[in-house]
Amino acid sequence: MAETIPLWSLTDDSLVEISEDGSLVVVTRWGEHEFPHAEPLVLESLRRMALGPVSLANVTSSWEPVEREPDLEGELSWTAEGADALRQVLKELGGSVVRSLGLADGRGPLLSVIPVVLAPVFAPVEIPASRPIRLSRFSSLRSDADGMGLESPSARYRVVLSQPWAVHVAATLATAKSVGEIVTTTGIDRGVVGGIVSYLVAAGVVQVAGENGRFAEDDDPELGVWSPDELSFHTTSRTWRPGGPADIAGLGNPPVVKAPTGEGPSYSLFRPDLADRAETDPTLTALLEHDHSCPEFTESVLSAEQIGEFLYRGARIRSIGPAHLPNGPAHSASQRPYFSVACLYELELYVSVNRCSGLDRGIYHYDPLGHRLDLVNDDAADLDEMLDIAMIGGGNHRWPSALITVTARMPRMASVLGGGAYATTLAHVGALQQTLYLVARAMGLAAHAVPVDAGDRVDRALKLDWPAEVGVGECVLDFPA
């Protein structure tokens, strides 16, 4: 029978500092932990854990036990004082302690269980050989830098499957099986299968059926309202995990303004007198108290002057200069009429013009610095398709006068915000949509966000460099019915 060995290590982003007087400082993604009078066993254990997965049972070989007692899942026998001290330190560092499972062959871990929260609980237990088990319906399996990554937004850990046996066992759990069935179908040693399964269950990526044979998450009404994709996006966007966009070299500092394509003509836009508008605009309270329902699209014709004023008041660049996040590097930034974290302003606006005096039908990119429209696509079929998805998304039976498509240049965000880039971008879309809505109301127009089933149609029609620039929202511009 193959023997499995529990291994311990610290996450790659942890730093262990041991001073000459024996004091210990561990710097992790969650904060800095100080242990002024650490036990020698603690110092040696963490020193080795910082280097990679280690059997803590081996660390104790130079310490003579005062009394023998099982500790940390029965794998260690230490002096009571040293064991208690190490237990407390590992508990405090729980969000940065990696639990791995290896074999007695020195070939490294079968799998590693990496925490994604500050204070997770990891308690592997033996799973009955006949009890059905299954991957959580929220789990996903994808390529990882060190193997296959297995994670679930409902779990406190992500798992890296480093060797084929671990990948094989995890893959068989796409449908419910017992440990006994896995052993029979894979031919892998029962002890190895049992160890792998116990770690996957303890990590939260695999579910164990109850006495009634059902899985708890299938009957959970709160989980039932979430799709796997939505819950995964929510969880990962709220936790900036290692290995995300911030760890990708070469992003640099993307420019404030998207370079023009130079393929089509440019049209300078009208610039309104804002002092005059301040005298005649309705109050903010009056604007906010209007009905926010999506308007019935009319057959009225916008003017180029109206589109120019709308974009000038809602989305132009007022100024450019340096900015930075707290304790972060400086980056080029701009000031515009709507909110953006660190003034990054990664959003771009494209205008699909249907009915407008002074502008031909076509799809244009808005240059917020030069305040002009650059034609990017004059193909009538592409324009009609964009207007079709706006009509359907707005629940109307005719095309709007114009459609504003909002895109995001993701390198602009990821270079500063890393794994939080996309979630922050969606917050920026909301800020922009509200600004455009208020500007349109003040001008006597109607602007409203519409949900569209874009597929790849938007990317093609706008000639986007996917995935460096992606569509993130739409807003129709028309007249009140």
From TrEMBL:
Origin organism lineage: Bacteria, Bacillati, Actinomycetota, Actinomycetes, Pseudonocardiales
Annotated CDD domains: McbC_SagB-like_oxidoreductase
Source domain of life: Bacteria
Limits of the Cyanobactin oxidase ThcOx second domain: 133-241
InterPro entries: Bacteriocin_Proc_Enz, Nitroreductase-like, SagB-type_dehydrogenase, ThcOx_dom2
Protein name as annotated: Cyanobactin oxidase ThcOx second domain-containing protein
Organism: Amycolatopsis lurida NRRL 2430
GO MF: oxidoreductase activity
